[in-house]
Amino acid sequence: MPRDAIPQIDAAALKASISTHLKTSLGKDAAHASTYDWRMSLSLAMRDLVVDPWFAATRDTYEAKAKRVYYLSMEFLIGRLIEDVAINLGVEEAARTALTDLGQDYQRVVANEPDAALGNGGLGRLAACFLDSLSTLAIPAYGYGIRYEHGLFEQRFENGVQIETAETWLSQRHAWEFERPEVTYPIHFGGYVSESEGKAVWHPGESVLASAYDTPIIGWQAQWANTLRLWAAKPLTLFDLESFNRGDYLAANAPESLARTISRVLYPDDTTDEGKELRLKQEYFFSAASVQDVLRRLLSEGHALDDLADHVAIQLNDTHPAIAGPELVRLLADIHGMPMDRAIATARACLGFTNHTLLPEALERWPEGLFARILPRHHRIIELIQDAHAKETGSDIRIIDHGEVKMGELAFIMAHTINGVSALHTELVKETVFADLNTAYPGRIINQTNGITPRRWLYTCNKPLGDLITETIGDGWQDDLERLGGLRPHIDDAGFRAQFRAAKLSNKHRLAAWLKTRDDVTIDPEAMFDVQIKRVHEYKRQLLNILETIALWNDICDSPNGDWTPRVKLFGGKAAPGYAMAKSIIHLINDVAATINSDPRTRDLLQVVYPENYNVSMAELLIPASDLSEQISTAGKEASGTGNMKLSLNGSPTIGTLDGANVEIREQVGHENFFLFGLTAQEVEARRREHGFSRRAIEESPRLTRVLGQIASGVFSQSDRERYAGILHMLYEQDFFLVTCDFDAYFTAQRAVDQAYRNADRWTRLAANNTAGMGWFSSDRTIRGYANEIWKVASPRAT
Ligand code: F58
What we know:
Blueprint lengths: L10 H14 L10 H29 L4 E5 L3 E4 L2 H8 L2 H10 L4 H6 L4 E3 L3 H15 L4 E6 L7 E5 L2 E5 L12 E12 L2 E5 L2 E5 L2 E13 L6 E11 L5 H6 L2 H4 L1 H9 L14 H24 L7 H4 E6 L6 H12 L4 H10 L1 E4 L10 E3 H7 L1 H18 L6 E2 L2 E3 H8 L2 E4 L2 H9 L3 H6 L4 E3 L6 H7 L2 H11 L20 H26 L8 E6 L8 H17 L8 E6 L7 H18 L8 E4 L6 H10 L2 E4 L11 H7 L4 E3 L5 H8 L5 E2 L4 H8 L4 H7 L2 H11 L12 H9 L5 H20 L1 H14 L5 H13 L8
The protein binds N-[(cyclohexylcarbonyl)carbamoyl]-beta-D-glucopyranosylamine.
N-[(cyclohexylcarbonyl)carbamoyl]-beta-D-glucopyranosylamine binds next to helix 6.
């Protein structure tokens, strides 16, 4: 192991490097430098330190002829990188000291970095955690994605209504990337296919260039670095000179405008896109560039295409890059002359596919006409894949069916292994969405329960708790998280519990101070912080949470002298811009907040806070400060969840349903340390078949009846009684996500939470048992599972 590759740098040397960058990279002197200038200089100084380990990793991979992992994902939800890089390099103290010496405040400089928000939610954040773990485990890997000019939209509330504006992280220089103008591939669309001498020839209608930008991803203790390669679309020709000379400036700009739109913006939908042409072009654009890059590297290293699967493991993060399968077949067969059957088998031998959802509306399908127009050759190749599949299995499952190209079926059939993301989800994948394919290809579906990187999600974001852990069980848990189990015996120690409580309280103070500064909101750190942070979606049931909040408010008002547990209900999350019901739920939460927060009767006992624009950086503040984690999705709908893991790891017990990874969290932390409620996935299916189930549930619950009556009579929307007619109608007539059926059970579970929290000592035991029990949920464990069971790769550093 080339330990000499680890950069050694002290505060003085780092200070000198920052000053040099300020002068020569930013062109500023210290007297006139802005926070931005300092942030860039610090980032560039740290980036310099990443380069040697990065080169060493590439060299070792090459020399060992090691197999590489290629993780294809439309989304990488990275957040900020400064602190992450600093802690992985072990230079955080040096950086702090260097900046202080230079008269700058480290935290202010860190906070100047915009979040790289190249993802919507869990799927994109999982990809970022996986990159961290791949580097920490020294597994040779590339992440491939799109260098969106605009990440996930910014959210603000106007009179409680979500307003979206474009995100602009690339309006400033991105400090961490290296532009690779020499690494480009042409990407074609449209046109037609001809046959010549029995060979298919694609004559494209339009083309763009995919141009690479590389960000090194450094692992724990700088032992290894992999590459995140993001593709930007560029025009093949800058402009059409002939049109320009004629004075037709619009036509002159046409090549550039197609290219610019392709990598312009991340789609903000958290369910499927209704056949939007640009989305398909984005998917093909980055999949095709990535696959070309993979083959170029393989050939440049002197390997034969027939041996592809010995050197290459490609993972499809959901169906979004599923077109990589047919593209690989096209390159092998049409360009490199491999027989079609062998090309299909060769491609399949290196492809894995991860499914992240059971929601039928989220399974991508393209209208066949649109698909064939944009990708005529791939349309034909998919028919050939379908024929090969039919011949192999005798099954009549079709990829192209009723005028649609079904990307789930395509990804499944083209992959040697399909995985779900939690134990429950994987079983449901086998029984529901892919039941027929599971019969046709028994054993192909396996489970890899999600995980999270403990470096970002505990060590970096929660210093007080991280320090306590190190003090108690020693160092080493950061890359061996199961060691947290060693905390268990200490939970009986009153001194440890006091320190655990103190750590949580200091995080709560930090959050309170941040809310005060940013939003002028005052919250009491002594109150229970009850946190629901995630995309807003009906199945995640923020609605259930806010209805319970109203019911609690009613109860407090009815018995003002009762033994209440002060609570702050914190919400964070965005709704897809086109998702009317989710936006209405956001509006309701904000309306309820306005009403309850101004009620002098309950002010000290109940508060609702919904900070705008939830993102990774806000999560890093909220999670360490949370007392209670809301994981209340309708059973059977949340594939896994990863926020549930982050919160529990940070000492925040869960109130939740038997859904996704909640089931496994509850096993690991102990049933007594988890507040369970609600129908099971099986009961949900059965209940839905009962006629009028939601009306009955409402009638049987006086509390819920009262709450819905208040909403209907305009208690929270005095100016507009009709505002929530849509929500009410949905609850009475349909309630697909069974909010009404789980309401009473949820209310009761919350009162058990209240009671437990009132006993500070009991609560600390609960919270500490959560931290101690979460070791299994490190994404290092998840990546080891993928490496052994799907990719068959090992680190060239493994001895
Ligand atoms: C999420 N999916 C799952 N999709 O909902 C969550 O349970 C799971 O923990 C996580 O993946 C990681 O496995 C998710 O985040 C998206 O955001 C897609 C964005 C693009 C369109 C389709 C949904």
